[in-house]
What we know:
Layout: E1 2-5, E2 11-13, E3 27-32, H1 36-41, H2 56-64, E4 65-66, E5 69-71, H3 72-87, E6 97-101, E7 107-112, E8 118-129, E9 134-137
Parallel strand pairs: 1-8
Antiparallel strand pairs: 2-3, 3-5, 4-5, 6-7, 7-8, 8-9
Amino acid sequence: xxxxxxxxxxxxxSLGPTEQLPASRSRIPVVLECTCSKEQLLGEMSCxxxxxxxxxxxxxxxxxxxxxxxxxxxxxxxxQMLVGSAWLxxxxxxxxxxxxxxxxxxxxxxxxxxxGRQISMEMxxxxxxxxxxxxxxxx
Length: 139
């Protein structure tokens, strides 16, 4: 399953042209952007770049980034934790066991149900490059 990551409001992933992709696709720069003109249209004062207050998205960035880069190992661990927690709330969890399989740049899971029935799945992450909608896989 290909999962396209999107940055929080006021941020962007800084991927240059295709021929200038970061040497390591696991280190995608995250850039704070000025959205003042958009914020003023909505009646708010200024963007995250021009305010001193903390925002909830900053906590998420602290969780998923190392320095100014999206950290794919942190993203994978975070998604694995979310999926594992969410699985326990589903009715299917009474009949199937979810096992998180080792993986550092994607999320791999195995569902075990009735004897002999297993399903394996993998979530691979990508980010959108440019406005054309092309996605770059982060494996």
